[in-house]
Specification:
The chain is mainly alpha-helical and 122 residues long. The chain has five helices and two strands; from the N terminus they run αααββαα. The radius of gyration is 15 Å and the shape is globular.
Length: 122
């Protein structure tokens, strides 16, 4: 199973578990991970992101507490409900783009120029 597109920047000052949690909220709220979607196992996502399993487990646990995720023995972790505080899809896409741009080392100006060049291309 491939992991959803999540990028963790250990230098941005936000705890890695929180980055994972917030990005999952955006992916679920934006429809990238609809209700019923199966998430990667904790160990698999942790390995994909280069994080400790406990870090991903905390993000999953927080979302389980909020009723967004549900974990079962045979079905693994699945999206149970939309987050009550999910951003709109455009905001979610922008947040994901910013996370990716940062992971690539792009400056704010470079990221904005990339958006502008593609926005006017149609």
């Amino acid at each position: 199973m491939s992991a959803p597109r999540i990028v963790v920047d250990v230098d941005n000052g936000v705890a890695p578990w929180r980055q994972v949690r917030d990005q999952l909220v955006r992916l679920i709220g934006g429809g990238v991970l609809p209700v019923g979607s199966r998430l990667p196992a904790i160990r698999q996502l942790a390995a994909d992101l280069g994080l400790a399993a406990g870090t991903v487990a905390r993000a999953y646990r927080e979302l389980e507490t909020e009723g967004v995720l549900m974990t079962g023995r045979r079905q693994g972790t699945v999206v149970a409900a939309l987050p009550s505080h999910a951003p709109d899809p455009l905001s979610a896409a922008a947040a994901e783009f910013v996370a990716i741009a940062r992971s690539l080392g792009a400056s704010e100006g470079e990221a904005l120029n990339a958006v502008r060049s593609h926005y006017g291309a149609e």
